[in-house]
Amino acid sequence: MDSCTAESLGDEPELQTLSTGTHDVVLRYQDMIYRLMLTHTRNRGDADDAFQEVFLAYHRKQPKTCDEEHLKAWLITTALNCARRTVTNSWRNRVVPIRPEEADQFFDEVFSFDTLEQDAVFRALSKLNEIYRSVLHLFYFEDQSVNEIAQLLGLEVGAVKMRLSRGRSVLRNQLQEDYFNE
Amino acid sequence: MSDIFKNMASQMRPSPELLQDLFEKLDTDDQAEAAPVQLPAKPKKQAWQLWLFSAACLLIMVGMISTAIQDFARFNAPPPPASTPQTPTQPPRPEVVVVGDYAELFAAVRQIPNFYFNNNYRDQGTWGAGEVLFSGRQPPAAPLMRPTSGDVTLSLAESASDKAHEGSYTATNVQVSGIDEGDFVKTDGKSIFIASGNSVQVVQPAGAATKLLSRFSIAGDKDNPGTITDLMLYNSTLVVLYQRYELRPLEDVIQNGNYNPTYTEYVPYDAKDIQTLLYDVSSPAAPRLMTSFEQSGIYNTSRLTDNLLYLVSSYQVNPQKIDAASPQTFVPATGKDGNLSPMPIKDIGQVPTPSSPSYTVVTAIDLTSQQLIGQQSVLGSSETVYMSSDNIFLASFVHNAPVKPLPETTIEPRVIEPGGEQYASDEAPLDAPGAQTLPSEPVPVTPTPVPGGETDPEADVVPPPPTPDVSDTPSAEPTPTPEPVETPAPTVEPTPAEPTAEPTLSAEPTLEPSASSEPAPTQKPVEPTTMPSETPKTVTGPATHLIRIALADGALQLAAQADIAGSLLNQFSLDEHKGHLRVVTTVEDQQTWQPKASLWVLDENLQRIGEIATLVKNESVQSVRFAGNVGYVVTYRQVDPLFTIDLSNPKQPKVLSALKIPGFSTYLHPYANGLLLGLGVNADSVGNTSGLKLSMFDVSDPYNVKEKHTQEIPFWSAEALHEHKAVLVDPSRGLIGFNTNERAIYYMKDEAGWDDLSPLSYLIFNYDAKQGFSLSKEIPRDYDRHNVPTRGMIIDNSLYVTTHDHIWSYDLAKFNELTTMDLKK
Q1: Which of B52, B205, B496, B796 is most solvent-facing, going by the fewest CB within 10 Å?
Q2: CA-closest candidate to residue B298, choices B265, B320, B275, B278
Q3: Where are the domains of chain B?
């Protein structure tokens, strides 16, 4: 506990006032985790599975975290791992035999947004390599700073910046490509 | 751009039904640990880790059968399998659990964590440990692992699938020579069989005269559809592995409370069983169905050795439909020609703590006599399957299992600067010529003007000196004299008082760390033990549950079970050799949450007899390949060390070398003549990936591994990175082929003038021992889908590239296209 207090108090003198009971944690972080799952899994079913898995893991492990930021970091890291595992495991179980003409209605069980543009962005984002997707997601959807992302993913800050910049570039190209193909 | 993301974020919400379901699960879940895990705060400054990392990693050596190693090792031969001479007090407990009768089995299924009863049943993988429920009845004596088992030739001259290259065609690229693996394409040099949906196309390869010989489909209907998962070929018998589904009854969907006409989670088909169809293809123009076998569940994988076909599936029961009086509701079934019957109790075992109501089912079919000759099922699902010549190993990932605490000491391989250039590479070396390690200080990162105005002055500062918290640095540690101490207690059982000084048999500091190679003068000498010496308590954490089923010429006998810490990468993480199972896992360090790579050597009861508990810290395993007495492991965080490990003494695995190169390999392939081929991701010294690359490692001199040649590949991903069957390697012709996805776009290039090249290509490389790699041909493919499974094969003098729907042929000289055929027509 000492190392925990020393480290955290050194930077942020924020004391833990929020409840860490699972129920409350779910309510606080449901959106963040669900967003992560949507962009890091391939379909709604996987996203739902992985979403529940994160909170169940939290419930079982009961990690004692120093502060809210710490808790958030734990949840994000666990979420990324759960998503990765769910994706690896799920493809075997979700192979569905469909005829080519039926393919469109079942393809990708995507989450759909209000506007076509948003759909396009989401689709393009989903096609990115995971390393870019994670960084872009945390940066844009979760408003994390480059520093925070670096800590979360265990990377150099320079690496995060490179991935952001490169990811944006690939995303832009992907969007243009999609635009011309439609 | 940010407004659109904000808007999207506000829409990305879980549905009320999903939340409700989660709360129900949490309320009924009583798996919370008694002792909550205290997590230390993550270190805030990580910039110094790169520096430390460079200090830690080392180039040492490779040892295969060199006499130097044999002088070192005290024991050349593995211990006799039937006894454990060093620990007479406690006999090993194999933890094999056999069920007494159907009633017991029913009770076991019933007791599995009850949240499954509230949810739509589907195989969700493992969630956590349940209650211990085994009956304790000991199984009949199962064959032990032979001391000569898995005796793959130790010389790299023979690659894994070299045997398949006999004759004039290349076969499926497999893990173990002589053991075929199912794939959607099979050939015997005379015909090519391609599975597509529920039909098989038979193509006659004849260069420019290639043509479609015949085609047949397997009947199914809308309510009971099916799809072919893999093919297998044995002489003139074509085995078609056909996965059958059934439509879930609507009343089930509604009853579970998840039915919402406007919110469909997924198509409600459930996998029913696998049908194994045997076709006589002695006349490939007219294939003839001979017989079929059936087995409950979802197809996992298949293997073929000689005339024996082994089939692995996962069968999940519906906990709401089980009925103690009807075994067919909770027991997997097997049969022939449609006559399915529940497996007899003698063929069913269980893991000590099944976490989901699903079985792994293994059957053995003799293709000559066309009989089902053996079967074994285990209550407890498994994802990874590895088969050696004698055993099938099933592995499943378990979130929380009590694992013996790992010793905290980390004897790291030392940095050695041999004073000459470390590798000859086609491209410029990382930094200074001749240096194979990173510079002593990290490359200063110049702030790139990131649109959006994100600057971070902190990142450009030279990192502060590291705290002594991390023991990645070399230090003067006493060399533990290798002792043949065995760990008698099974790893599953929580052992409260664990001695701290568990002898870690790991890297031998065979060379003294030269002072000049120490990176930074500010580094203080570090104690090997990072944590204060306290008795490590049992910790629970992610683990892998292993099951060994002895093949016994098809009889299939459940032999041993155990848990080991960490998770497996894939089937290549396991290898049996001379009566021992070598395993590499990525373990989540309980103190820092960081991943670390570990190597384990297990005996026939899957108990640890040798290990390198921490191969490297803060890295995940990216690829593994075992070749006889040597193991190669690639890990990655930002730079990739290729570890070469001497396994000639199973109790004392030794890290012999750690070659650091940019990027990391995800697939390793023993090529020929002391060469190891790696396919993986390219990156610079800071860890920014920039496409793919091929590497040829010179592993002939165990003590001096080099990256001899490399080839940059300007694509972001390839099926071959994670699917070994997608790689075509023909050392006799120096040919390497695989398909790629997504041409890489370098951010530095001028985007305005970028022309849109085709997203997918099939690449053919040539490798010459002197010249290195060269691109022979890039065949662009114009698909609107992202990842198209593709296989390449050489038959006589032509190259054939095929997907599910299309096949092309090329001449081997210039790779001009000879034929192109749409298989759907």
Answers
A1: B496
A2: B275
A3: 97-152+161-401, 473-496+503-514+566-662, 667-789
Residue from B27, B39, B592, B823 to probe the interface with A (highest A Cβ count within 10 Å): B39
Tokens of residue B267, six digits: 């198509």
Q: Is residue B137 classed exposed, middle or buried when 0-12, 13-18 and 19+ CB atoms within 10 A define those classes?
A: exposed
The position carrying tokens 């076998």 is B293
Q: Closest CB to B13: pick one of A4, A34, A170.
A: A34
Confirm or reject contact between B522 and chain A (CB < 8 A): no
Work out the angle at residue A48's Cα, subtended by the Cα atoms of residues A44 and A53, and round it to the nearest 5 degrees.
150
Closest CA to B111 of B375, B317, B367, B387: B317
DSSP string, B440-493: SSPPP-PPP--TTT---GGGGSPPPPPPTT---S----PPPPP------S-SSS
Q: Identify the residue with better confidence: B128 or B635.
A: B635
Contacts of B641 (CB under 8 A, 6+ apart): B57, B616, B619, B634, B635, B658, B659, B660
* Residue type present at position B722: H
Partnered with residue B39 across adjacent β-strands are none
Residues A132 and A84 in one domain: no
Indicate whether A3 belongs to any domain: no
Under an 8 A CB cutoff, do A150 and B637 touch?
A: no
Q: Compute CA distances B253 → B24, B259, B270, B302, B333, whole Å.
A: 18, 6, 12, 32, 24
- The CATH number covering residue A67 comes to 1.10.1740.10
Q: Which of the pair, B356 or A23, is modelled with greater confidence?
A: A23
The partner residue sitting opposite A166, judged by closest CB among B22, B686, B747, is: B747
Contact B46 A131 (CB under 8 A): no
The residue behind tokens 């690229």 is B173
Q: What is the ipTM of this complex?
A: 0.81
Nearest to B6 by CA among A165, A176, A113: A113
Q: Which residues does chain B have within 8 Å of residue A85's beta carbon, measured at their own beta carbons?
A: 125, 397
In this predicted structure, which of A171-180, B115-124, B417-426, B808-817 has the lowest mean pLDDT?
B417-426
The answer to the question of residue A77 being in a domain is: yes
C-alpha–C-alpha distance, residues B466 and B59, integer Å: 22
Distance of CA B708 to the CA centre of its chain: 26
Question: Are the beta carbons of A56 and B44 separated by less than 8 Å?
Answer: no
> pLDDT for B801-813, tens place per residue?
999 989 999 999 9
* B473-496+503-514+566-662 is a CATH 2.60.40 domain: no
| Cβ within 8 Å, pair B13-A154 | no
Name the token pair of A17.
């006032």
Out of A113, A121, A165, name the one closest to residue B448 (CB): A165
Nearest CB among A7, A35, A121 relative to B41 is that of A7
Asked if the Cβ–Cβ distance from B26 to A22 is below 8 Å, we say yes
Q: Please tell me the total count of domains within chain A.
A: 2
Are A70 and A42 within one domain? yes
A2: in domain: no
Residue with tokens 């829409």: B11
| Domain that residue A22 falls in | 18-93
Query: pLDDT tens digits, residue range B620-661?
Result: 788 899 988 888 888 876 566 788 888 888 888 888 888 887
Q: Cα distance from B796 to chain A (closest Cα, Å)?
A: 34
pTM greater than 0.80 (yes/no): no
| Contact in structure between B692 and B713 (CB atoms under 8 Å) | yes
